[in-house]
Amino acid sequence: MRNKIVIAFVFLTGLIQAQVKELTLKEALQFALENKSDAKKAKLQVENSNHQIAEVRAQALPQVNLTGGLTYNPILQESALPGEIFGQPGTIILVPFGQKWNSTAVASLTQNLFNQSVFTGLQAAKTTREFYAINQQLTEEQLIEKVSSSYYQVYVYQQKLKIAENNLESTKKVRDIIKGQYENGLAKKIDYDRMSVKVSNLEAAKQQLTNAVQLQENTLKFFIGMAIDQPIKLPENTISVTAEAFTDKVETSNRTELALLKKQEQLLTYQKKSYLAEYYPTLSLSANYGYQGLGKEMPWFAKPADGVYWTDFSSVGLNLKMPLFNGFSTRSKVRQANINLQKIQEDIKDTELALNYGFENAKTQMNNSIININTQEQNVKLAQQVLDNTKNNYINGLASLTELLDAENSLTESQNNYTSAQLEYKLAEIQIIKSKGELKNLLK
């Protein structure tokens, strides 16, 4: 029975481990673009713009309608006619007009021949599709930026956790050595107690980092649209420091943020044109053909012999509408459109400034990060050497416990500083890549 339980436990453990998903940055980005709701909604907006174009195009196509009706008049309206018509001079006679039943069926057609608003609307609809296509690209780039930053933060926290685990194991070994020395009368009890406190503090710090890693992983899973309960792990050596992304100057005119604003400016221009189109006359063609049945009985399926008579009718016409005065409503709309255009132009200027500002800051941060990485890398090596020497000296009675603890703290601080410098570098690198408009290259 016990063997069966052990076998089952091993099987379940292997199954759980098999379900852990190793997630590279490229895979995380692809998963986000395929599953995150923001990316899906952006795609739906592009799809919906095709239907918006079809809706506007419909106004330029013939409009055909079929109407019908059946009317029963319990009391016919009477008109007062002079009696002379009926051979009764000097009298007024009330005569009913119409029939008790009336049934009609009419087919009508309307075709715009000239309507400036429709033509402008078609141009605006096509521009709207281009706007949503650019917006989809911007949404994907923003998602890539957000996921990349979160991914590197997860990796850095995982590295800090490994540092804490290694330091804990190292400190435990020193504590065990001191314990042995104390039991043999070669060390003081206070030294052993101090190391025990250090171990407890490191265990608490390790637990805090474990929780922090879990929080960062949950954030990453949320950003990419992955189930929160899906265990993930990141491959080793995720962060590499290279100068591939670095550039001294970048052209911001091809940035998606500016392209979107300029397309929005174009849409506002069409909006102004649509208001101006209200000054133009409109010309349309209309035609209809109908069939009518009148009688004392319900006309359907009835004949003249039943007192029901059927007749057809039709008409064709041109309809011209000349706008003359609408209380300056159109003028007010045009002036509002001009204000909106001025506002979007100011947004474009401010965005250009913000993009240059972000690039210069990212460039400075990257330079600082490279210097800091090199410095901290040397500090880690030096701190490790100091710790090894101090540990050896302490065992041989040539160094105090305080010196040993200081050496351990220095190594931990240097390792964490090195890891933080790597994160700062990668975040700056993302901004540089973003400034070049090449965020999607991270998918390659």
TrEMBL record:
<keyword id="KW-0175">Coiled coil</keyword>
<keyword id="KW-0812">Transmembrane</keyword>
<dbReference type="InterPro" id="IPR051906">
    <property type="entry name" value="TolC-like"/>
</dbReference>
<keyword id="KW-0472">Membrane</keyword>
<protein>
    <submittedName>
        <fullName>TolC family protein</fullName>
    </submittedName>
</protein>
<dbReference type="InterPro" id="IPR003423">
    <property type="entry name" value="OMP_efflux"/>
</dbReference>
<feature type="coiled-coil region">
    <location>
        <begin position="192"/>
        <end position="219"/>
    </location>
</feature>
<keyword id="KW-0998">Cell outer membrane</keyword>
<comment type="similarity">
    <text>Belongs to the outer membrane factor (OMF) (TC 1.B.17) family.</text>
</comment>
<feature type="coiled-coil region">
    <location>
        <begin position="334"/>
        <end position="424"/>
    </location>
</feature>
<keyword id="KW-1134">Transmembrane beta strand</keyword>
<dbReference type="Pfam" id="PF02321">
    <property type="entry name" value="OEP"/>
</dbReference>
<keyword id="KW-0813">Transport</keyword>
